Amino acid sequence: MSGHTDMVLVNDDGIRIDGRKCDEKRPIKIEAGVLKNADGSCYLEIGKNKVLCAVYGPRECRPKHMQDPTKAVIQVRYNMQAYSVSDRKRPGTDRRSVEISKLISEALSSVVMTELYPRASIDVYIEILQANAGTRCAGLSAASVALADAGIPMRDLVPAIACGKADGHVVLDLNKEEDNYGQADVPLAIIPSTDEIVLLQMDGNMTREELDRGLDMAFGAAHELNEIQRDALKRRYTEKASKEASE
Ligand code: ADP
Fold this sequence. Notes:
By secondary structure, the protein is an alpha+beta fold.
């Protein structure tokens, strides 16, 4: 978010470097139930981002001092693989991954019916296989599908997508160049049935009017993303049902 580059992020025709219009999100692909040994799982691509999410639980929370007698705790591990970025990333946990894990856990806690499972833990592993900006949104979008795939009761799914500003234009779903050299990045996650916001961050600067326009775009895109999440789960259930019927 330096805001300084000679690179043209949005050209005179309003087209971005990856060929998108300002209000266009990247292509999205979601598949539920991709891992045999996890309770729930999801593979998600948005543009060049590739994310795998696995869910275990609800199961007994360990260590015991982490237990909550009133509800399940959602333990999230967001992890960027060393090969996910152009320069090899130092493997392991860092401040950024701890912060992202925490905010994804908080967003998921708004929809998962944790009160049904006192003292339990729901473990969510998010692996960023390839990163191109927007991985916290991609990870969160994948995690809610994986939780639903695990059969964990939820009020709704959580679609997440960013808006922001690049070359003075309000844009949807920033790519890496826009994230690096644009003027603002605003990741958003919502509960589609109520339009409640469960994650909203802002890095950079925008006018209030620009932010309003950006959020309008991001809400619209989050609802579309929600349909893609639901389709992935429907496909998964149909596959499961036809497999069981043939057994
Ligand atoms: P998000 O991926 O949610 O947009 P950031 O804004 O922190 O999160 O990061 C933007 C992008 O910068 C990432 O998607 C990734 O492409 C890149 N990036 C983040 N951390 C690193 C790192 N340690 N090394 C190299 N690239 C990174």
